[in-house]
Amino acid sequence: MVRIVKEYAERKKEIMDTAQSLFYQRGYENTSVNFIIETIGISKGTFYYYFKSKEDLLDSIVEEFTKEIISKLELVVNDNSIDAITKLNEFYRQAGMYKAENIDLIKTLVNTLYNDKNLLLRYKMNKRTVETTLPLLSKIFAQGKNESSFNIEHPVETARIVLLFGTSLGEYNAKLMKSLEENPDNINELQRHLNLYQMSVQRILGAPEGSIKVFDEYIIDAIIDKHNES
Predict the structure, then answer these.
(1) Which has the least CB within 10 A, 23, 48, 50, 160?
(2) 121 and 223 within one domain
(3) Do 58 and 44 belong together in one domain?
């Protein structure tokens, strides 16, 4: 049999794509490294050449997902033709739309990360999200300060507070999503949280009443649709 040698990036992507598909189908906890390598047809040594562990593999999948979101958000942030409020709303819209389009991955992450066994991995991923998003949000807040549409003194610190607030709320919302099957009314509490978060961001920024739109209904609809498919 002729051995097929693939380029590094191609092989790594193949492992990540296959694992991601299996995580969707079987769940992260029920998908072993052995099952992944058997599905692809590679040796265990090949797998560990690219990834230290299954946790490292999941982290790489999330890192790639984060990079794709950031690339979309950078286009918004660097658009000099729009004002800060419009830019912030589009920033949140693009992030929410991308998550809605990749709701399978979001569901997998929620089910995987929000248990005590994966506490360290969750901390690492949340920390990366804040670090990569902070420069972009800070730039929007600085623009809003200069335009006098945001009543803030320190754009970077304000952006950090908003992000950490969102991350903390996300921890609780993830628990609501995990128990959605047993408690369908959780979707209403989740929506209330999003509304309150939106109002809180507006007040932190000192922005005009009703000017900030953090989320759209399609995010809630995507969660409901995915729940109904289960």
Answers:
(1) 48
(2) yes
(3) no
Mean pLDDT in residue range 100-117:
80
pLDDT digits (tens, 9 = 90+) for 164-198: 999 988 888 888 887 877 888 888 888 898 889 99
Tokens of 54: 């299954």
Say if residue 121 is in the same domain as residue 77: yes
pLDDT(1) > 60:
no
Residues 26 and 81 in one domain: no
Q: What does the pLDDT read at residue 223?
A: 63
Residues 6+ apart with CB under 8 A from 75: none
Token pair in block for residue 104: 């399978």
Tell me: do 38 and 73 sit in the same domain: no
Q: What is the mean pLDDT of residues 203-211?
A: 95
- Clarify whether residues 42 and 150 are in a common domain: no
C-beta separation of 160 from 130 below 8 A: yes
For residues 191-225, one letter each, b for 16 or more C-beta atoms within 10 angstroms of the residue's C-beta and e for the rest, the string is: eeebeebbebbbebbebeeeebbbbeeebbebbee
For the CA atoms of 74, 75, 76, 81, the dihedral, rounded to the nearest 10 degrees, stands at: 130
Please indicate, yes or no, whether residues 3 and 69 belong to a single structural domain of this protein.
Answer: no
Query: Looking at the 3D structure of the chain, how many domains does it have?
Result: 2
Instruction: Give the integer Cα–Cα distance in Å for 145 and 50.
Output: 45
> What sections of the chain are H helices per DSSP?
8-26, 33-40, 44-50, 54-77, 84-101, 103-113, 119-147, 155-178, 186-205, 217-229
Q: How many angstroms separate the first and last alpha carbons of the chain?
A: 42
Q: Which domain holds residue 136?
A: 54-229
Is the model's pLDDT at 88 over the cut of 70?
yes
